[in-house]
Specification:
The complex is a heterodimer of chains A (306) and B (568). By secondary structure, chain A is mainly α. Helices cover 75% and strands 0% of the residues of chain A. Chain A is flat and about 85 Å long. In chain B, the strands form 6 sheets. A 6-stranded mixed β-sheet of chain B has the order 15-19-14-18-16-17, sandwiched between helices. Classes of the chains: A mainly alpha (306), B alpha+beta (568). The interface between A and B is large, with 81 and 79 residues.
Chain lengths: 306, 568
Amino acid sequence: MTRFLISRAAQSVLVICVVYTCTFWLLMAAPGNPFIGVKQPPPAIIHALKVRYGLNNRWHAYWAYPWRVITRGDLGPTISYANWTVLDVIRSSLPISVSLGAMALLIALWLGVGLGMLGALTRGHWPDLALTVGSLLGISVPSFVIGSILLLVFSTYWALLPSGGWGDLAQVILPAGALAVGFLAYIARLTRIGMLDEFSADYVRTARAKGVPPGRVMVGHILPNATLPVLSFLGPAAAALLTGSFVVEKIFAIPGMGEDFVNACLDKDIPLVLGIVMVYTVLLVAFNLLVDIAYVFADPRISLHG
Amino acid sequence: MVLFWVSMRRVLIIFSGLLMLIFVGGFWISGGDAVRSRAIIFCQAGQIHTLDPAGMTWMQDIRAGLALWQGLTQYNPTTLRPIPGVAKNWTLSANGRTYTFHLRRRARWSNGDPVTSANFVFAWKRMLQPATGAGYVEMFFHIAGARAYFDALAKTRGRPRPFSSVGIKTPDLHTLIVHLNAPCPYFLDLMAFPPFFPLNQQSMARFAVRNGASFSYYNLRFTRPPYLVTDGPYRLTAWKFHQYLEFKPNRYFWARSTVHCRELRIVSFSDSLSAFRAYQSGAVDVLSFVPPEFTAALLRQQQAGLRHDVHYRPVFGTYYYIVNCARAPLDNPLIRRALDLAINKKQIVDDVTRLHEKPLTVLVPPGTIPGYHSPHGLAMNVPEARRLMRRAGYPDGRGLRPLKFLTNDTDSMNMLVAQAIAQMWQRNLGVRIRIATEESKAFNQDCVQGNFDIARAGWYGDYMDPTTWLDLFVSGNPNNHSRFTNRQYDQLMERAESKADPARRLALLTDAERLLVDRYMPALPLFQYTDGLMYHAREIGGIRSNVRMITLLQYIHWKHRPHGDTYR
C-alpha cells in the first residue's frame, strides 16, 4: 500500500508539473497583451506592470510562479482584478463551485443509482424503455439547454424558484439539477448495465439457491458489484463538477470559478489562469487517486501488488 | 461476501457524506448576507476591475469611483460641467496657465481626517510614478514639468528629477496651486475625474511594497474594506468578490445632506441576459445598461406605451472604423475617401443595428460640446466614390488586393456591421474585404502594431472637449492606431492648444476635424453610440440623464418602495 501510494504521488506531481509547463507556454504563445486595453498606456507604464507581475522575462516568470506558490502560497495579484490576488479569487469562487458541484453529484449519484436499479429490474418494460430514452437525452442534451428549460419552467412560468444568484438554498436547486442531469443519466446507464451483467453471475445463482429473498440479492449482492464502474466514473465526474461549469454558472448567474476561468483566459490574466488550472489539476489528480484507493476497499479482486 | 458488501456500502456512504459536508461547508463560506429592502441594488454591465483611482479606465470602475471619492471639482449631474467639489473655489491666472484651488475646510475623509492639499499632492505624485501603472497618466502631462518627471523615472539610467520640478505647489494645507504647460479649458473637468482624486496616505502606508530599501508601489489591498478611506458621498463597507460591493453614506462627507440612499449595492452579472432576468424579477433595481439582445424590442414596447422604464439616449461616443494610413494602398487618401463615400450609414443603423442611432459624418458627436461647431463631413455619394477609385488607379477595384478588416468579438453587432459594409464596398467599388475577428486582447494588440488595413473602433469621450477625439490623430500619440501623420493637422492642433481664447480655440479645432473628415479620412465615422439605463422612475429618483452616461450615485434614492419591508 505504501509503495503504491508513493508511486502514485510521484506520478501526480509529474502530471502537475507537465500541466503547469504546458499552460504557461500556451499562455505565453497566445496573442494579445494583458496590459493593453482600448486606451493604450505609455510604454513605460506597460513595462512597469510587466515588472510588477514578473512577466518582463519569460524564463524568469516560468520559475517565479511555482516559487511564489511554494514560498508564499499565492500567485500574487491578478491582472484584470488588480485589487485581488489569485488566492482571493479562488477562495471566493471555489467554495461556490465546489458546493454546487457536490450537490449536483449527490443528486446524480443517488438518483442515478436508483433509476439504474429500476431500469434493470423492469428490463424490457415501459419504465426501462422510458429510462433508456431519458438517459440518452440526458447524456446528449447539453447542460445549457437543460438549464434554460428548467429556468423557463420553474422560474418564468411557475415562479417557484429564483432565476439565479447565490446565497440562498432555493438558488441551488435549479443549477444543481441542471448540472446533475448529464452525470445522472450516465450513472443510471452504468448501474443498469452493471446490474444486468451480474444477474447471471454464479454467486447470484448461489444466493438465490440458498433461498435469499430477491430484494436482498438485489441490494446486498448485485448492487455492490454493479456499481463498481460507477465508482471509477465518480473520480473524473467529481473533479469536473466540483471545479465548476462555466455554462451553468453563466445561465444561473452564479459567481463561481468557471466564469472566472473563461474571463481570465480572455483577458490573458496569466497568474489567474495558472492558478485556476492548477486548482483544477490538483483536484482531478486527487480525486483519481481517491477513487483508486476506494477501489481497493470496494473490490478485493484488485490487488495493489499485482 | 458480507465483508465485501460492507466495504462497498461504506465507500458509497463515506463518499456521499463527504459530498454533503463539502456542500454545506462551501455554501456556508460563500453564501451572501440577506439584502435589506432599503438597499438599492444597482447592476453594472461588468465587474469592478479596480477601485484604485490611478487604475480606473472602465466605466463601471469610474462610476463606483465617483460615488466613493470627490476631486477638487465634481460634475453637475445633468450638464456635467465642473462645479466646486473639495475645492470651494478657485482662480485662474490671466495667462490661463495657473490654477489656485482653495480647499473646503469641512471636507473630510471617511475616517474623519480633514482632506488637505497634501492628499492631492500624494495621489498625483503616485500617479506620476511609472510603477503605479496608471493608464491615464497622460492626462497629467498638462501640468508643467510632469512629463519630464515621469520620463526621467521611466528611464532605468540617469538621475530622476525632483518632484519639486513639477508645477504642483501647496503653500498651505488648504491651498493647491497648479501650473500648466498651456491653457487647458477642460482642466477643471479633469479635476472631477478619478485619476485626479486625492488619496489618504496614512491609511495606505501599511500597504507600501518595498523593493529592497526603496519604496516601489502600493499593494492594491488598500482599496478593500475595511482599509479603504475615501472622501466622497459613500464609503465602502463590504466587497465580496464577484458578488457585490456595499456602499453606505460617508457621515463625514461635507455635503452629507445630498445623500439620501442609506445603502447601495453594486452588483454585476456575467451576461446581460441574466442581468435582465434579475431586473425583471425585482432582484435588481437599476440596470446601468439596456440589454443589447432586447434593445430593439424594449424600445418598441416603450413606444407602444407598454413599459416606461427604458431610459435611452444618444451618448458621447462614436462608432467608427480606423484606416491604416501607413500601409499601401490605403496610404492614399483618395481611396479612404472613396470608402467613406460608399457606405450607406443610414441603412446600417436602420437595418443592421436596428437601433436607429444617429449616422455620423464626423468624429466628435455634434451638439454635445457647447460652442463647438462640427464640420460637415462627407455625405454618401457612390458615383464620386467610383471616380475617386479611378483617379487612385483602381477602377472598379481592379488591381486592388483584398483588404484585411479587423474586428473584436465583444459584441455580435460588430460582425454584422462589418459584413454589411464589406458588401457595400464590394458592390459599390469592387473592393474585396477579408474580415478577421479576434478576442479583445489580441485585437487591441494588433491595432497597436498596425496589423490591419481597416479596423473597428469605438471611442467614448473622457472630457467635454473635442480633443478627446482629435488627439487620437496627432502624430506620435500612442492611441493613434491609424498611424495618421499630417503636418497641417498637427500644426492646427498645436495652435489650438496655445490659444487662451476658448472660442478661437474651438474654431481651430473645427478646422482640424474638417481635415480629418472632409479630406484625409484616417477614420470613417459611422454612427453615434446610444446607451441607456433601465429603472422605474416612479420608484427611484436622483438619476439624471446626461450625454456621458455618468450616473452619479450620490443622488440616487428611493421615491417609493414597491416591496414594502419584505426581504428580497
